[in-house]
Design brief:
single chain; alpha/beta; 5-stranded mixed sheet; two-stranded antiparallel ribbon; 7 helices; 7 strands; 42% helix; 14% strand; elongated; binds zinc ion
Length: 200
């Protein structure tokens, strides 16, 4: 059918290139776009483009920030500048922030070491983290990678890299279900895991 409507076929093909969209959602989304009025669609495109142009990663912690504004963590005097919570992605950071019980800084790795998917340590922000520890007087690193095999292996790799430095390396308290990802955990569990953190 789609070869009779080549423009729609192109829309579907383009949507298929976006990760995280289930194949069923792609057809629904295409329909939704076609049914939207032109003004709303133009607004959506403008918002997307503006976000791409105006939002970038902080060069220190790799959290998204507004291009012409300071980082809401690294440049916030009220936050504990000596404490850094290492998370895989920005989504996990949001979960930790929602607990309201953490006042330190973050370091977003950008994923986990996964040789099968071609992700090595050099694709992540691990070197920048080590440099940060050396230069910024950090006293504690909380390794809050997910309790999946890749998350644990990444935490071990980082802990090994930090060996010999005068800092405390801790990880989330047990009680966090094995295999679970922080992103989908409730706030009380994350708060408890953080406040009862233990040496790595
Ligand atoms: Zn920052």
């Amino acid at each position: 059918m789609l070869d009779q409507v080549p423009t729609l076929a192109q829309l579907i093909k383009t949507l298929q290139q976006i990760p995280y969209l289930a194949s069923k959602s792609i057809y629904r989304l295409a329909t939704h776009f076609l049914e939207m009025d032109e003004q709303h669609l133009e607004h959506l495109c403008a918002v997307l483009l503006k976000a791409k142009q105006q939002v970038l990663r902080c060069e220190t912690c790799f959290v998204w920030k507004e291009k012409d504004r300071a980082c809401s963590f690294c440049d916030a005097p009220k936050r504990n500048q000596k404490l850094v919570c290492v998370v895989e992605t920005w989504q996990e950071l949001l979960t930790v922030e929602k607990t309201g019980g953490y006042d330190g800084l973050y370091h977003v790795l950008g994923g986990v070491i996964c040789p099968l998917e071609g992700v090595g340590p050099e694709q992540l922000t691990i070197d920048a983290l080590i440099k940060r520890v050396d230069e910024k007087g950090i006293t504690e690193i909380i390794l809050a990678t997910n309790q999946t095999p890749e998350g644990e292996a990444t935490a071990s790799y980082i802990a090994h890299k930090l060996k010999g430095k005068m800092i405390t390396i801790s990880c989330l308290a047990r009680g966090v279900p094995v295999g679970s990802t922080l992103e989908f955990m409730d706030k009380l569990t994350v708060y408890k895991a953080l406040s009862e953190r233990r040496p790595f």
